Amino acid sequence: MRLLLAAVECAKGGVEANLRRHVELLEEAAGAGCDLAVFPEFSLTGSVDPGRHPERALGVDAGPVRELVAETRRTGVAAVFGIAERSADRFHIAQLYAHDGRLDGVYRKRHLGEGEEGFEVGGGPGVFRFGAASFGVTICAEGEVDFPWEDVARAGAPLVLFCSAPGLDGRRSDGAGWRAGHHWWCSAGLGDAVRHARQLGVWVAMATQAGSTEDEDFPGLAALVRPDGEVAARLPDWRPGTLVVDVPVRVAVEPVREAVRVLVVDELQRALLVRFADAAGGPGWWAPPGGGLEPGEDHRAAAGRELREELGRDDLAVGPWIGRRSHTFETLEPGRWMTQRERWALCRTSRFEVDPERVAWLRREGIHELRWWSADELRAAGALTTPRRLAQLLDDLRQGRMPGPDGDLRV
User: Fold this and answer.
1) What pTM value is reported for the model?
2) In terms of CB atoms within 10 Å, which of 7, 182, 384, 405 comes out highest?
3) What contacts 24+ positions apart, CB below 8 Å, involve 133-136?
Protein backbone atom coordinates (compact mmCIF):
# COMPACT_ATOMS: atom_id res chain seq x y z
CA MET A 1 0.00 0.00 0.00
CA ARG A 2 1.54 3.28 -1.10
CA LEU A 3 0.78 6.34 1.03
CA LEU A 4 1.39 10.06 0.70
CA LEU A 5 1.84 11.51 4.20
CA ALA A 6 1.21 15.26 4.26
CA ALA A 7 2.76 17.66 6.76
CA VAL A 8 0.75 20.66 5.66
CA GLU A 9 -0.13 24.15 6.83
CA CYS A 10 -3.85 24.34 7.66
CA ALA A 11 -5.17 27.89 7.94
CA LYS A 12 -7.71 28.45 10.69
CA GLY A 13 -10.96 29.50 9.03
CA GLY A 14 -9.31 29.14 5.61
CA VAL A 15 -11.36 26.26 4.25
CA GLU A 16 -11.14 27.28 0.59
CA ALA A 17 -7.34 27.61 0.66
CA ASN A 18 -7.04 24.37 2.62
CA LEU A 19 -9.29 22.63 0.09
CA ARG A 20 -7.11 23.79 -2.81
CA ARG A 21 -4.02 22.45 -1.06
CA HIS A 22 -5.70 19.08 -0.48
CA VAL A 23 -6.55 18.85 -4.18
CA GLU A 24 -2.96 19.72 -5.15
CA LEU A 25 -1.64 16.99 -2.88
CA LEU A 26 -4.13 14.42 -4.18
CA GLU A 27 -2.83 15.17 -7.67
CA GLU A 28 0.74 14.81 -6.41
CA ALA A 29 -0.21 11.50 -4.81
CA ALA A 30 -1.76 10.31 -8.09
CA GLY A 31 1.44 11.16 -9.93
CA ALA A 32 3.40 9.10 -7.39
CA GLY A 33 1.08 6.09 -7.80
CA CYS A 34 -0.30 6.33 -4.26
CA ASP A 35 -3.36 4.46 -3.04
CA LEU A 36 -4.11 6.82 -0.15
CA ALA A 37 -3.23 10.38 0.94
CA VAL A 38 -3.11 10.96 4.69
CA PHE A 39 -3.75 14.46 6.05
CA PRO A 40 -3.39 15.84 9.59
CA GLU A 41 -6.01 16.46 12.26
CA PHE A 42 -8.22 19.47 11.35
CA SER A 43 -6.59 19.57 7.89
CA LEU A 44 -9.61 20.95 6.01
CA THR A 45 -11.03 23.37 8.60
CA GLY A 46 -7.84 24.27 10.40
CA SER A 47 -7.84 23.90 14.18
CA VAL A 48 -11.07 25.20 15.70
CA ASP A 49 -12.10 26.43 19.14
CA PRO A 50 -15.87 25.76 19.04
CA GLY A 51 -16.45 28.20 21.89
CA ARG A 52 -14.91 31.11 19.97
CA HIS A 53 -15.54 30.15 16.34
CA PRO A 54 -18.34 27.59 16.01
CA GLU A 55 -18.95 28.86 12.46
CA ARG A 56 -15.61 27.40 11.38
CA ALA A 57 -16.73 23.84 12.01
CA LEU A 58 -18.28 21.80 9.18
CA GLY A 59 -20.87 19.08 8.91
CA VAL A 60 -19.83 15.90 7.13
CA ASP A 61 -22.23 16.86 4.31
CA ALA A 62 -20.94 20.44 3.95
CA GLY A 63 -20.01 21.69 0.50
CA PRO A 64 -16.20 21.70 0.98
CA VAL A 65 -16.34 18.15 2.34
CA ARG A 66 -18.38 16.99 -0.64
CA GLU A 67 -15.94 18.70 -3.01
CA LEU A 68 -12.96 16.97 -1.44
CA VAL A 69 -14.73 13.61 -1.46
CA ALA A 70 -15.45 14.11 -5.18
CA GLU A 71 -11.76 14.79 -5.81
CA THR A 72 -10.90 11.28 -4.64
CA ARG A 73 -12.80 10.03 -7.67
CA ARG A 74 -11.26 12.45 -10.13
CA THR A 75 -7.70 11.78 -8.98
CA GLY A 76 -8.14 8.08 -8.21
CA VAL A 77 -6.51 8.50 -4.77
CA ALA A 78 -8.31 7.81 -1.49
CA ALA A 79 -7.95 10.31 1.37
CA VAL A 80 -8.10 10.50 5.14
CA PHE A 81 -8.57 14.15 6.16
CA GLY A 82 -9.56 16.08 9.26
CA ILE A 83 -12.33 18.50 10.18
CA ALA A 84 -13.83 20.15 13.21
CA GLU A 85 -17.25 18.53 12.85
CA ARG A 86 -20.48 20.29 13.80
CA SER A 87 -23.81 18.52 14.12
CA ALA A 88 -26.47 20.91 15.48
CA ASP A 89 -24.92 22.15 18.75
CA ARG A 90 -22.45 19.26 19.14
CA PHE A 91 -18.83 19.28 18.05
CA HIS A 92 -16.34 16.49 17.36
CA ILE A 93 -12.77 16.23 16.15
CA ALA A 94 -13.10 13.92 13.17
CA GLN A 95 -11.04 12.20 10.50
CA LEU A 96 -13.01 11.32 7.36
CA TYR A 97 -12.17 8.52 4.93
CA ALA A 98 -13.14 8.89 1.27
CA HIS A 99 -12.40 6.95 -1.91
CA ASP A 100 -13.82 6.80 -5.44
CA GLY A 101 -16.02 9.81 -4.70
CA ARG A 102 -17.63 8.17 -1.66
CA LEU A 103 -17.45 9.12 2.01
CA ASP A 104 -16.77 5.68 3.46
CA GLY A 105 -16.41 6.44 7.15
CA VAL A 106 -15.90 8.93 9.97
CA TYR A 107 -13.74 8.48 13.06
CA ARG A 108 -14.42 10.82 15.97
CA LYS A 109 -11.66 11.39 18.50
CA ARG A 110 -12.24 9.43 21.71
CA HIS A 111 -9.58 10.94 23.97
CA LEU A 112 -9.45 14.73 24.07
CA GLY A 113 -6.40 16.79 24.91
CA GLU A 114 -5.85 20.01 26.80
CA GLY A 115 -7.88 22.89 25.37
CA GLU A 116 -10.38 20.62 23.61
CA GLU A 117 -13.11 20.89 26.24
CA GLY A 118 -15.57 22.29 23.69
CA PHE A 119 -15.64 18.97 21.84
CA GLU A 120 -17.38 15.71 22.71
CA VAL A 121 -15.71 12.31 22.57
CA GLY A 122 -16.68 9.87 19.85
CA GLY A 123 -17.49 6.20 20.14
CA GLY A 124 -16.10 3.11 18.45
CA PRO A 125 -12.74 2.43 16.82
CA GLY A 126 -11.79 3.97 13.50
CA VAL A 127 -11.04 0.92 11.33
CA PHE A 128 -11.52 1.15 7.58
CA ARG A 129 -10.82 -0.90 4.48
CA PHE A 130 -9.05 -0.35 1.20
CA GLY A 131 -9.29 -3.47 -0.91
CA ALA A 132 -7.92 -6.38 1.09
CA ALA A 133 -6.11 -4.00 3.46
CA SER A 134 -7.54 -2.67 6.70
CA PHE A 135 -6.18 0.31 8.58
CA GLY A 136 -6.99 2.24 11.72
CA VAL A 137 -7.01 5.94 12.61
CA THR A 138 -5.94 7.66 15.82
CA ILE A 139 -5.81 11.40 16.46
CA CYS A 140 -3.11 13.47 18.21
CA ALA A 141 -3.71 13.33 22.00
CA GLU A 142 -4.76 9.68 21.63
CA GLY A 143 -1.06 8.93 21.36
CA GLU A 144 -0.94 9.41 25.15
CA VAL A 145 -3.37 6.56 25.86
CA ASP A 146 -3.61 2.93 24.80
CA PHE A 147 -7.25 2.04 24.21
CA PRO A 148 -7.77 3.56 20.71
CA TRP A 149 -4.65 1.77 19.47
CA GLU A 150 -5.52 -1.50 21.16
CA ASP A 151 -9.00 -1.43 19.61
CA VAL A 152 -7.47 -1.05 16.15
CA ALA A 153 -5.06 -3.94 16.77
CA ARG A 154 -7.88 -6.16 18.07
CA ALA A 155 -9.75 -5.50 14.83
CA GLY A 156 -6.77 -6.95 12.98
CA ALA A 157 -5.59 -3.77 11.23
CA PRO A 158 -1.82 -3.92 10.58
CA LEU A 159 -1.53 -0.16 9.90
CA VAL A 160 -2.48 2.87 12.03
CA LEU A 161 -2.69 6.40 10.65
CA PHE A 162 -1.71 8.87 13.40
CA CYS A 163 -3.13 12.27 12.39
CA SER A 164 -2.15 15.24 14.55
CA ALA A 165 -2.18 18.99 15.11
CA PRO A 166 0.02 19.61 18.19
CA GLY A 167 0.00 23.34 18.85
CA LEU A 168 3.23 24.74 20.29
CA ASP A 169 3.38 26.96 23.38
CA GLY A 170 4.41 30.43 22.28
CA ARG A 171 5.13 31.70 18.77
CA ARG A 172 8.15 30.60 16.73
CA SER A 173 10.17 33.63 15.64
CA ASP A 174 13.42 32.02 14.47
CA GLY A 175 15.01 28.73 13.46
CA ALA A 176 16.06 27.93 17.00
CA GLY A 177 12.46 28.19 18.19
CA TRP A 178 11.20 25.94 15.40
CA ARG A 179 13.92 23.39 16.08
CA ALA A 180 13.02 23.32 19.76
CA GLY A 181 9.32 22.81 18.99
CA HIS A 182 10.10 20.14 16.45
CA HIS A 183 12.41 18.36 18.91
CA TRP A 184 9.58 18.26 21.46
CA TRP A 185 7.14 16.72 18.96
CA CYS A 186 9.67 14.15 17.80
CA SER A 187 10.12 13.14 21.42
CA ALA A 188 6.41 13.22 22.31
CA GLY A 189 4.40 12.42 19.17
CA LEU A 190 6.91 10.31 17.29
CA GLY A 191 7.85 8.73 20.61
CA ASP A 192 4.21 7.71 21.13
CA ALA A 193 4.08 6.26 17.61
CA VAL A 194 7.24 4.23 18.25
CA ARG A 195 5.88 2.92 21.55
CA HIS A 196 2.53 1.82 20.12
CA ALA A 197 4.10 0.31 17.01
CA ARG A 198 6.45 -1.80 19.12
CA GLN A 199 3.83 -2.84 21.69
CA LEU A 200 1.19 -3.84 19.12
CA GLY A 201 3.38 -4.95 16.20
CA VAL A 202 1.73 -2.53 13.75
CA TRP A 203 2.95 -0.02 11.19
CA VAL A 204 2.29 3.62 12.13
CA ALA A 205 2.09 6.42 9.56
CA MET A 206 2.14 10.00 10.91
CA ALA A 207 0.84 13.21 9.34
CA THR A 208 1.10 16.46 11.35
CA GLN A 209 0.06 20.06 10.78
CA ALA A 210 3.02 22.28 9.85
CA GLY A 211 3.70 26.00 9.96
CA SER A 212 2.15 29.17 11.36
CA THR A 213 -1.54 30.03 11.62
CA GLU A 214 -3.21 33.20 12.86
CA ASP A 215 -2.48 32.49 16.52
CA GLU A 216 -0.65 29.16 16.77
CA ASP A 217 2.34 27.32 15.33
CA PHE A 218 2.66 23.62 14.48
CA PRO A 219 5.82 21.48 14.15
CA GLY A 220 5.41 19.59 10.91
CA LEU A 221 6.24 15.91 10.85
CA ALA A 222 5.49 13.04 8.51
CA ALA A 223 6.97 9.66 9.35
CA LEU A 224 6.56 5.90 8.97
CA VAL A 225 7.35 3.60 11.90
CA ARG A 226 7.90 -0.15 11.50
CA PRO A 227 6.29 -2.75 13.78
CA ASP A 228 9.60 -3.14 15.64
CA GLY A 229 9.54 0.57 16.56
CA GLU A 230 12.25 1.64 14.10
CA VAL A 231 11.58 4.78 12.07
CA ALA A 232 11.58 3.69 8.43
CA ALA A 233 11.25 7.18 6.90
CA ARG A 234 10.55 10.76 7.97
CA LEU A 235 10.72 14.35 6.79
CA PRO A 236 13.94 16.11 7.77
CA ASP A 237 12.55 19.03 9.79
CA TRP A 238 9.50 21.02 10.87
CA ARG A 239 8.67 22.56 7.49
CA PRO A 240 5.66 21.57 5.35
CA GLY A 241 6.33 18.68 3.03
CA THR A 242 5.16 15.31 1.77
CA LEU A 243 6.54 11.82 2.26
CA VAL A 244 5.68 8.90 -0.04
CA VAL A 245 6.07 5.51 1.63
CA ASP A 246 5.30 1.89 0.79
CA VAL A 247 3.79 -0.22 3.57
CA PRO A 248 3.87 -4.03 3.12
CA VAL A 249 0.13 -4.41 3.55
CA ARG A 250 -1.60 -6.30 0.74
CA VAL A 251 -4.28 -4.34 -1.11
CA ALA A 252 -5.11 -6.77 -3.92
CA VAL A 253 -8.32 -8.77 -3.45
CA GLU A 254 -8.19 -12.46 -4.30
CA PRO A 255 -9.06 -13.91 -6.70
CA VAL A 256 -7.65 -11.22 -8.99
CA ARG A 257 -9.69 -10.75 -12.16
CA GLU A 258 -7.53 -11.01 -15.27
CA ALA A 259 -8.57 -8.62 -18.03
CA VAL A 260 -7.50 -6.99 -21.29
CA ARG A 261 -8.00 -3.52 -22.77
CA VAL A 262 -7.44 -2.44 -26.37
CA LEU A 263 -6.52 1.17 -27.09
CA VAL A 264 -8.04 1.71 -30.54
CA VAL A 265 -6.39 4.74 -32.21
CA ASP A 266 -7.24 6.27 -35.59
CA GLU A 267 -5.06 8.07 -38.14
CA LEU A 268 -5.56 11.40 -36.30
CA GLN A 269 -4.36 9.89 -33.00
CA ARG A 270 -7.84 9.86 -31.48
CA ALA A 271 -8.87 6.97 -29.26
CA LEU A 272 -12.22 5.18 -29.35
CA LEU A 273 -13.39 5.02 -25.73
CA VAL A 274 -16.46 3.60 -24.03
CA ARG A 275 -18.29 5.35 -21.19
CA PHE A 276 -19.17 3.20 -18.21
CA ALA A 277 -21.84 4.41 -15.77
CA ASP A 278 -24.02 2.97 -13.03
CA ALA A 279 -27.69 2.17 -13.47
CA ALA A 280 -28.65 5.76 -12.61
CA GLY A 281 -26.78 6.91 -15.73
CA GLY A 282 -24.44 9.36 -14.00
CA PRO A 283 -21.42 10.94 -15.73
CA GLY A 284 -19.39 7.74 -15.38
CA TRP A 285 -15.88 7.27 -16.72
CA TRP A 286 -14.18 6.60 -20.05
CA ALA A 287 -11.93 3.64 -20.85
CA PRO A 288 -10.73 1.65 -23.87
CA PRO A 289 -12.81 -1.39 -24.92
CA GLY A 290 -12.04 -4.56 -23.02
CA GLY A 291 -13.04 -6.82 -20.19
CA GLY A 292 -12.30 -9.93 -18.20
CA LEU A 293 -10.83 -13.12 -19.61
CA GLU A 294 -13.12 -16.11 -19.92
CA PRO A 295 -12.00 -19.54 -18.60
CA GLY A 296 -9.20 -20.96 -20.72
CA GLU A 297 -8.82 -17.76 -22.74
CA ASP A 298 -5.53 -15.93 -23.24
CA HIS A 299 -5.18 -12.14 -23.47
CA ARG A 300 -4.94 -11.97 -27.26
CA ALA A 301 -8.04 -14.10 -27.76
CA ALA A 302 -9.90 -12.02 -25.18
CA ALA A 303 -8.89 -8.81 -26.97
CA GLY A 304 -10.37 -10.07 -30.24
CA ARG A 305 -13.57 -11.23 -28.54
CA GLU A 306 -14.05 -7.89 -26.73
CA LEU A 307 -13.61 -5.95 -29.98
CA ARG A 308 -16.27 -8.12 -31.62
CA GLU A 309 -18.67 -7.76 -28.72
CA GLU A 310 -18.24 -4.03 -28.04
CA LEU A 311 -17.40 -2.63 -31.48
CA GLY A 312 -18.83 -5.25 -33.85
CA ARG A 313 -15.44 -5.66 -35.57
CA ASP A 314 -13.48 -8.85 -36.12
CA ASP A 315 -11.00 -7.43 -38.64
CA LEU A 316 -8.88 -5.20 -36.38
CA ALA A 317 -5.21 -6.02 -35.89
CA VAL A 318 -4.37 -6.17 -32.18
CA GLY A 319 -0.83 -5.30 -31.08
CA PRO A 320 1.68 -4.47 -29.87
CA TRP A 321 1.27 -4.78 -26.09
CA ILE A 322 1.76 -1.37 -24.46
CA GLY A 323 1.63 -1.98 -20.73
CA ARG A 324 -0.06 -3.49 -17.72
CA ARG A 325 -2.35 -2.08 -15.07
CA SER A 326 -3.59 -3.39 -11.74
CA HIS A 327 -6.20 -1.50 -9.74
CA THR A 328 -8.32 -2.22 -6.68
CA PHE A 329 -11.73 -0.60 -6.31
CA GLU A 330 -15.07 -0.89 -4.55
CA THR A 331 -17.73 -2.17 -6.91
CA LEU A 332 -21.21 -0.72 -7.32
CA GLU A 333 -22.21 -3.18 -4.59
CA PRO A 334 -21.19 -1.31 -1.39
CA GLY A 335 -18.59 -3.11 0.70
CA ARG A 336 -17.50 -5.41 -2.14
CA TRP A 337 -13.98 -4.77 -3.41
CA MET A 338 -12.20 -6.33 -6.34
CA THR A 339 -8.79 -6.19 -8.00
CA GLN A 340 -8.48 -6.24 -11.76
CA ARG A 341 -5.16 -6.94 -13.49
CA GLU A 342 -5.15 -5.73 -17.08
CA ARG A 343 -2.89 -6.19 -20.07
CA TRP A 344 -3.13 -3.39 -22.66
CA ALA A 345 -2.76 -3.66 -26.44
CA LEU A 346 -2.62 -0.98 -29.13
CA CYS A 347 -4.80 -1.22 -32.23
CA ARG A 348 -4.25 1.28 -35.09
CA THR A 349 -7.07 1.69 -37.59
CA SER A 350 -8.94 4.15 -39.76
CA ARG A 351 -11.82 5.88 -38.05
CA PHE A 352 -15.15 4.04 -38.11
CA GLU A 353 -18.51 4.36 -36.40
CA VAL A 354 -20.14 1.75 -34.19
CA ASP A 355 -23.68 0.64 -35.01
CA PRO A 356 -26.12 2.50 -32.68
CA GLU A 357 -28.03 -0.74 -32.10
CA ARG A 358 -24.86 -2.29 -30.71
CA VAL A 359 -24.36 0.69 -28.42
CA ALA A 360 -27.91 0.27 -27.12
CA TRP A 361 -27.26 -3.45 -26.55
CA LEU A 362 -24.10 -2.63 -24.56
CA ARG A 363 -26.11 -0.82 -21.90
CA ARG A 364 -26.64 -4.18 -20.21
CA GLU A 365 -22.85 -4.17 -19.67
CA GLY A 366 -22.93 -0.69 -18.12
CA ILE A 367 -21.65 0.96 -21.33
CA HIS A 368 -23.69 4.05 -22.21
CA GLU A 369 -21.71 5.69 -25.01
CA LEU A 370 -18.80 5.28 -27.44
CA ARG A 371 -16.81 8.24 -28.72
CA TRP A 372 -13.54 9.14 -30.43
CA TRP A 373 -11.38 11.42 -28.25
CA SER A 374 -8.14 13.29 -28.80
CA ALA A 375 -5.84 13.93 -25.85
CA ASP A 376 -6.64 17.66 -25.97
CA GLU A 377 -10.39 16.99 -26.02
CA LEU A 378 -10.13 14.76 -22.96
CA ARG A 379 -8.27 17.48 -21.06
CA ALA A 380 -10.57 20.29 -22.20
CA ALA A 381 -13.67 18.36 -21.17
CA GLY A 382 -12.20 17.28 -17.83
CA ALA A 383 -13.28 13.76 -18.76
CA LEU A 384 -12.74 11.13 -16.10
CA THR A 385 -10.66 8.35 -17.62
CA THR A 386 -9.20 5.10 -16.44
CA PRO A 387 -6.32 5.30 -16.03
CA ARG A 388 -6.43 8.98 -15.07
CA ARG A 389 -3.46 9.84 -17.32
CA LEU A 390 -4.89 8.35 -20.47
CA ALA A 391 -4.49 11.68 -22.27
CA GLN A 392 -0.76 11.59 -21.55
CA LEU A 393 -0.56 8.08 -22.97
CA LEU A 394 -2.16 9.36 -26.20
CA ASP A 395 0.36 12.21 -26.29
CA ASP A 396 3.20 9.71 -25.93
CA LEU A 397 1.89 7.63 -28.82
CA ARG A 398 1.43 10.71 -31.02
CA GLN A 399 5.02 11.74 -30.36
CA GLY A 400 6.39 8.30 -31.11
CA ARG A 401 7.10 7.27 -27.51
CA MET A 402 5.90 3.68 -27.58
CA PRO A 403 5.37 2.23 -24.09
CA GLY A 404 6.96 -1.11 -23.31
CA PRO A 405 4.83 -4.25 -22.99
CA ASP A 406 5.27 -4.42 -19.21
CA GLY A 407 5.14 -0.72 -18.28
CA ASP A 408 2.95 0.33 -15.36
CA LEU A 409 -0.22 2.12 -16.52
CA ARG A 410 -2.01 2.14 -13.17
CA VAL A 411 -2.16 5.95 -12.91
Assistant:
1) 0.93
2) 7
3) 133/1, 133/158, 133/159, 133/249, 133/250, 133/251, 134/158, 134/159, 135/1, 135/159, 135/160, 135/161, 135/249, 136/160, 136/161, 136/202
